[in-house]
Amino acid sequence: MTAHEIDYQIFGEEMQYVEIELDPQEAVVAEAGSFMMMDSGIQMQTIFGDGTNQDSGFMGKLFSAGKRLLTGESLFMTVFLNQWHGKRKVSFASPYPGKIVPIDLTQFGGKFICQKDAFLCAAKGVSVGIEFSRKLGRGLFGGEGFIMQKLEGDGLAFVHAGGTLARKELAAGEVLKVDTGCIVGFSPSVHYDIEFIGGIKNTLFGGEGLFYATLQGPGVVYIQSLPFSRLAGRIYAAAPQGGGQQRGEGSILGGLGNLLDGDNSF
Fold this sequence. Notes:
Elements: E1 7-11, E2 17-22, E3 27-31, E4 35-38, E5 42-48, H1 57-69, E6 76-82, E7 88-93, E8 98-104, E9 111-114, E10 119-123, E11 127-132, H2 136-141, E12 147-152, E13 156-162, E14 165-170, E15 175-178, E16 183-186, E17 191-196, H3 200-205, E18 211-216, E19 219-224, H4 228-238, H5 255-260
Antiparallel strand pairs: 1-2, 2-7, 3-6, 3-10, 4-7, 5-6, 8-13, 9-12, 9-16, 10-13, 11-12, 14-19, 15-18, 16-19, 17-18
């Protein structure tokens, strides 16, 4: 498997986008909805799956695309091919505040495991598949279901992390305990499992869920400070519910609290 060799530059701080420079006949494959802008001379084509099995017949394409449904993604991806005689650029934007992380798969032995909605785009030739969790507990309580995404090949891929990004290099046997939703991805040498928090007060009143993930080295782990599920949950909790009532910082004081909390609308 030989992926296209692409150059890139990442712009922005909290709301980033990646600009990819394509030589003639080079291409990049992207998740649907991540496209931002491109130069003229680039052809956009929607395909089944990630484009790595386009010569395997209809059933091969269908099987490749069908695997993506298990991760909650669309059957289709988009390929951007430079058909111009010179260099052209195409850009992809992050879906919410955070960081775009370039992953050189050659530095991870040709494989990188990430959460199911982290993938943004990659050089054509990189395979975007699924990684099954072999343990029942990990699948039921791991926050990402029985499966995560795996990126395979020898090219560049780009994943997105919410909030601030932490990169941890774990030594052999070193263990890092993480909120299950805060995992962005890790190298295949890292052992991933789920551990019960324990303690009746922790379970009932801790507010952190019943389980956390344990990541055991050796290997590299990427952690995000703001998973999208956490962000969405906070927005939903603060949004007006039925009857026009609002749950906010001053809700315990009712209308008086709304006057005091500074988030007023007149």
